[in-house]
Specification:
Serine Threonine Protein Phosphatase 5, Tetratricopeptide repeat; mainly alpha; 13 helices; globular; about 0% strand
Length: about 230
């Protein structure tokens, strides 16, 4: 189906009240896919979906008010209102956004690290890979209301990695390469690097494979002559 026909069918469905079609039309208006780029029109579609209870519509409408894009002006109060509606339905994007705002006391939200952590953990419980990696970093560093706990950080990274999230795969590879919080395991490290290489655009895997080969050689051959002479 060509773009013109797709837009025609989507518009008809969206005007009949189908929320998924409204969200898709809003997205197309944001990026200019098959229609002219028009943020005001995108907000109109998001509003229609949000009014019917769409958590995605509520999230994107909240984002629009925070950014002041497609609306008359920035309105943090309305932004938080829509994010809360979305978060109450378990939308992980809204949970993450509100969690971060409460951590920092931003966006008109009271600074409350415990509430922020609670919202982030709710997003984690829904399997949101980005949030899993973010909270893992909190545990690695012991910040923003949590005590340092490398093992909990690794557990969260593995949940994201099991979903195929590239950043988690590469972080785990680094941990197994360095032996931080896990038994050092070069073979497992390279397995994670190769699994994550789908998002590897800068030759990281190739460099890590060379590093892996060097480390394995050293583990079998012992230190180099220069090192023993030092």
């Amino acid at each position: 189906m060509d773009e013109k026909k797709a837009v025609e069918y989507l518009t008809r469905a969206a005007n009949q009240g189908y929320m998924k079609s409204q969200i898709e039309m809003a997205r197309r208006c944001e990026v200019g896919q098959g229609v002219d780029m028009n943020m005001q029109q995108a907000v109109r579609w998001y509003s229609m979906a949000a009014d019917q209870g769409s958590d995605m519509g509520q999230y994107y409408l909240g984002r629009a008010y925070f950014q002041g894009v497609g609306v008359d002006r920035i309105d943090q109060r309305k932004g938080v209102q829509y994010l809360k509606q979305s978060a109450d339905q378990g939308n992980p994007l809204a949970l993450f956004s509100l969690g971060r705002m409460h951590q920092d006391g931003a966006g008109g939200c009271l600074k409350d690290e415990n509430l922020g952590l609670s919202l982030l953990l709710q997003a984690c419980s829904r399997g949101d890979s980005f949030t899993l990696c973010y909270v893992a970093g909190m545990f690695f560093e012991g910040r923003l209301g949590v005590s340092k706990n490398v093992h909990e950080g690794i557990r969260l990274l593995k949940l994201a990695a099991d979903a195929g999230y590239g950043d988690a795969l590469l972080q785990l590879a680094n941990l197994y390469l360095s032996g931080e919080g896990v038994a050092q395991d070069y073979t497992r490290a390279m397995q994670y690097y190769r699994l994550g290489k789908g998002e590897d655009e800068d030759g990281l895997v190739a460099r890590k494979e060379a590093e892996y080969a060097r480390l394995v050689a050293e583990s079998f051959n012992g230190p180099s002559v220069s090192e023993t002479a030092a």
